[in-house]
UniProtKB/TrEMBL annotation, chain A:
Keywords: 2Fe-2S, Iron, Iron-sulfur, Metal-binding, Oxidoreductase. This is Xanthine dehydrogenase YagT iron-sulfur-binding subunit. PROSITE patterns: 2FE2S_FER_1, 2FE2S_FER_2. Pfam families: Fer2, Fer2_2. The keyword Iron-sulfur applies. It comes from Actinokineospora terrae. Residues 12-88 form the 2Fe-2S ferredoxin-type domain.
From TrEMBL, chain B:
PANTHER family: ALDEHYDE OXIDASE 1-RELATED (PTHR11908:SF132), XANTHINE DEHYDROGENASE (PTHR11908). Residues 18-122 form the Aldehyde oxidase/xanthine dehydrogenase a/b hammerhead domain. GO terms for molecular function: iron ion binding; oxidoreductase activity. SUPFAM superfamilies: CO dehydrogenase molybdoprotein N-domain-like (SSF54665), Molybdenum cofactor-binding domain (SSF56003). Coiled coil: none annotated. It comes from Actinokineospora terrae. The keyword Oxidoreductase applies. This is Xanthine dehydrogenase YagR molybdenum-binding subunit. The lineage of its organism: Bacteria, Bacillati, Actinomycetota, Actinomycetes, Pseudonocardiales. It holds the Pfam family MoCoBD_1. It comes from the Bacteria. The keyword Ion transport does not apply. Keywords: Molybdenum, Oxidoreductase.
Length: 176, 685
């Protein structure tokens, strides 16, 4: 018999493309995309740093747009593309942003890094699409200046304090 | 060939930028079960009743650990590890049980269904330097005495022409590595395997074996990657014991336990608040006649940890009259621990601001004032310094930063100023053993070391390759596993110096035994013990921190557009990873200066702002230009490698430099951290 306070979870089948591979799972509708990836699909590239959308370590790309996997319910990704930092390097070939992080030592412990990388990829796409930010003239096409990059990367915390190098890495990636 | 001193990319870099490096919780394991913690919602008292009926009835719940219902643990010095031994509650948030379930969702849900009844005792969690129950600790965590005194500070203060006498304070800070503490635990065939996020696998094994009454060879601890630690993972804490007990309760089933961010504010330590009554006296030329600090802080009633904030004052500047003291209040609070540069980091705040205040009063440049008070020998011990290049750091930093012509200026709506502070951190080593083996043209170094992002995966092969005189790509390394020889914990900035010296010893033994043309399978070990010269020399790394601060003239918004540090830290093994450690420390120092403040509610005994929404740390836009440089320094006295350690000195002095720069910009002197705009606003011109 179900105990007091217990409400049975609702499960549903979803199909999500994760790093290019179609994955069909039955998930509790309360399960986050982050827990689906890490605990059900064995993809631990996105990290859990706070589970509250405050640190950015779980950042992934949803149809190319950066989202926080801990604030995204898994069921909402049905029929969508999820790309993690691992998926940005198919067959081990690093994405230019990943190579720039390596070149500039833009990390230390590495725990926030996959989220930083996905966030940088998303931020550069937003810049290319002309999305304005607080750091620049919102009437002009934004440029990937250090101030713009710092502003747009401030949702991803790094306790090792690699920010200066992260900005330089994203600048390098922006130059192509 | 020489790889030491060369800019070698990280060996674990590819795995980290793709996210394929496996941290403790992520260890591949079939059929894992998930553990969630039950925590006390009172600050002091006893659990009188526990009702687990509802939780156990939840489908997927496997078992629930409750007080008194687990194995009897062996008492150890670290009393926070005595989990679930009785019904006593010593601080709010203490672990009083754990749920193990088939999924993490179910485990978390079941936590809500366990009902505790308490007998509530009156608690006392409010720190104040004015409490009447402050006591003097027997000794500091370094082994040094709590109090020291030479000459007569009071008399010197009375007769000096210039004095500074103020109370400075630092806030409670939580280490908050990005990877919350986590363990995957497996009990199988009378053996416990812990994939644990730790700064020291051997320390975890030794302590867990003792507390669980197992032989050390029954416990294996594995940790290839650590998502930051900053001291919080320096000692095992209560959760890893829970993970072990859970694994023992479900033999053969891997148990995963990761702390939530909120739990990081109660279960794994923190830097205590400090109050620093600092006094300096000087003659007209700026020569100090007295320097003194009376440091006050807090500890937990169930375990003593005293922040040694007075230690740096003992050796930093020359003065004939000197005094330091430590007093502490034992409270019903969570247990404090090491946090990056314990002692020196908070302890170089008050004195380095006081020196700036003295320079101001004297009309002397703060760099010149520091140079004028350089001691010839360690004022405390009378021993010579093995090397002391503070002056070189200050001078080079001044040149690089553009210290000359530093008059405060106004740039539009912004008030702009600059500040400087000195940094220091002890250089010492611990004990470690390395093994080196030859097989098919390759050498493999094995040592139970840890890489917290510090670069051990990369620098230990450099040290080995140079000593072996072989190309770097012929050397493999294995770290983070108790199946490798014993290594000290990564702490006290001792890692590279200690483990590197052990590698040198292993190479020497190997070459002595097998020469330069070894056979497959040849293997040797070497051990490094504490540096032989430590007793004869005072061994410290030094640094100079420079900050530019901009304060908005109307809102007092504070920005730090530039930080620059120059350090003298012995031999630098890898400039790339070293620079990252320095700027990382400085960035954390900026974070401490401007943001970090764990606010404890004395009514309930808990930290209220226990997440990143409430406990702010520096973000990318806060730290856009942080630069680190170093002096080439040869110091044969610290250890065979000549490295002093660089993980902590970067955070020392940063907050003082920023506060001094803010004063330079605005004329407002803030003496308590963090430096927030409300403290500047009332005094703005």
């Amino acid at each position: 018999m179900a105990p007091a306070g217990y409400r049975r979870g609702v499960e549903t089948a979803i199909t999500t493309r994760v790093d290019g591979t179609t994955r069909t799972t039955r998930v509790d509708t309360r399960t986050t995309l982050l827990d689906l990836l890490r605990e059900r699909l064995g993809n631990t590239s996105p990290k859990k740093g706070c589970d509250h959308g405050q640190c950015g370590a779980c950042t992934v790309l949803l149809d190319g747009r950066r989202v926080l996997a801990c604030l995204t319910l898994a069921v909402t990704t049905h029929d969508h593309d999820v790309t993690t930092a691992d998926g940005l390097a198919p067959d081990g070939d690093l994405h230019p942003v990943q190579q720039a992080f390596l070149d500039n030592d833009a990390f230390q412990c590495g725990y926030c890094t996959p989220g930083q990388v996905c966030s940088a990829v998303g931020a550069l796409a937003e810049l290319a699409q002309g999305h304005p930010s607080h750091a620049g003239d919102i009437t002009a096409d934004p440029e990937p200046t250090r101030a713009e990059i710092a502003e747009r990367m401030s949702g991803n915390l790094c306790r090792c304090g690699a920010y200066t190098n992260i900005i330089t890495a994203v600048e390098q990636a922006a130059r192509g | 060939m020489n790889t030491i001193g060369q800019d070698i990319p990280r060996r674990d870099g590819h795995a980290k930028v793709t996210g394929t490096a496996t941290y403790a919780y992520e260890t591949p394991a079939d059929n894992a079960a998930y553990c969630a913690l039950l925590q006390a919602t009172i600050a002091k008292g006893q659990v009188t009743e526990i009702d687990i009926t509802d939780a156990l009835a939840l489908p997927g719940v496997l078992t629930i650990l409750t007080p008194g219902d687990v194995q009897k643990l062996t008492p150890v010095e670290n009393t926070e590890l005595h989990v679930l031994q009785d019904n006593e509650i010593a601080y709010r948030g203490q672990i009083i049980g754990a749920v193990i379930a088939d999924t993490s969702d179910i485990a978390r849900h079941a936590v809500e269904l366990v009902h505790f009844t308490y007998h509530v005792d009156e608690h006392d969690s409010a720190y104040s330097p004015d409490r009447d129950d402050l006591y003097t600790p027997d000794k500091l965590v370094t082994g040094a005495p709590a109090d020291t005194s030479t000459g007569d500070v009071d008399a010197a203060m009375r007769t000096a022409t210039h004095t500074v006498d103020h109370v400075y304070s630092t806030a409670t800070n939580h280490n908050n590595p990005m990877e919350p503490h986590a363990t995957t635990a497996l009990w199988q065939d009378d053996t416990l395997i812990l994939w644990d996020s730790t700064q020291g696998v051997h320390a975890v094994r030794t302590t867990l074996a003792e507390v669980l009454d197992l032989r050390p060879d029954q416990v294996r601890v594995i940790c290839p990657y650590v998502g930051g630690g900053f001291g919080a993972k320096g000692e095992p804490h209560a959760p890893v014991v829970i993970a072990a007990l859970a694994a023992r309760a479900l033999p053969g089933r891997p148990i995963r336990l990761a702390l939530t961010r909120a739990q990081m504010f109660v279960l794994v330590g923190y830097r205590t608040p400090t109050t620093q009554h600092t006094r300096v006296a000087a003659d007209d030329t700026g020569r100090l006649t007295a320097i003194a600090i009376a440091a006050t802080g807090q500890t937990a009633r169930i375990r003593e940890y005293v922040e040694h904030a007075g230690a740096a004052t003992r050796m930093m500047y020359a003065a004939p009259n000197r005094a330091t003291s430590h007093r502490v209040a034992a409270l019903d609070v969570a247990v404090p621990t090491w946090m990056r540069a314990p002692g020196e980091c908070p302890g170089m705040f008050g004195p380095e601001v006081a020196i700036d205040e003295l320079a101001d009063a004297l009309g002397i440049d703060p760099i010149d004032l520091r140079v004028a008070n350089e001691p010839d020998v360690d004022p405390e011990s009378g021993n010579p310094f093995s090397s002391r290049n503070l002056v070189a750091c200050l001078r080079q930093g001044a040149d690089r930063f553009g210290w000359a012509d530093r008059a405060p200026r106004r740039d539009g709506d912004w008030l702009v100023g600059t500040g400087v502070a000195a940094a220091v951190f002890p250089a010492f080593t611990m004990r470690a053993t390395a093994a080196i083996r030859y097989d098919q043209g390759r050498y493999t170094v094995e040592i139970g070391a840890a890489d917290l992002g510090t670069g051990a995966w990369t620098v230990l092969p450099q040290i080995a390759a140079d000593a072996l005189e072989v190309p770097l790509d012929q050397v493999d390394v294995g770290i983070g596993d108790t199946s490798y020889p014993y290594a000290s914990t990564a702490g006290g900035s001792t890692g590279t110096a200690t483990w590197g010296s052990a590698v040198l010893a292993a190479v020497e033994t190997f070459r002595d035994k097998f020469g330069t043309d070894p056979n497959d399978g040849d293997e040797a070990e070497g051990t490094h013990d504490q540096g032989p010269f430590n007793e004869q020399y005072a061994t410290y790394a030094f640094g100079a921190q420079f900050a530019e601060v901009r304060v908005h003239a109307d809102t007092a918004e504070i920005r730090v557009p530039r930080l620059l540090g120059v350090f003298a830290a012995g031999r630098i093994i890898n400039p790339r990873t070293a620079r990252s450690q320095f700027i990382g420390g400085m960035t954390m120092g900026l974070s401490m200066a401007l943001h970090e403040n764990s606010e404890l509610d004395p009514r309930f005994g808990h930290v209220m702002n226990h997440d990143f929404a409430g406990y702010h740390i520096a973000s990318c836009a806060d730290a856009t230009d942080v630069r680190a440089f170093w002096i080439d320094e040869e110091d044969p006295h610290v250890n065979p490698l000549g490295a002093k350690g660089i993980g902590e000195i970067g955070i020392v002095g940063t907050a003082a430099a920023i506060v001094n720069a803010a004063h330079h910009a605005t004329g407002v002197r803030v003496r308590d951290l963090p430096l927030t705009l409300d403290k500047l606003l009332p005094g703005l011109p």
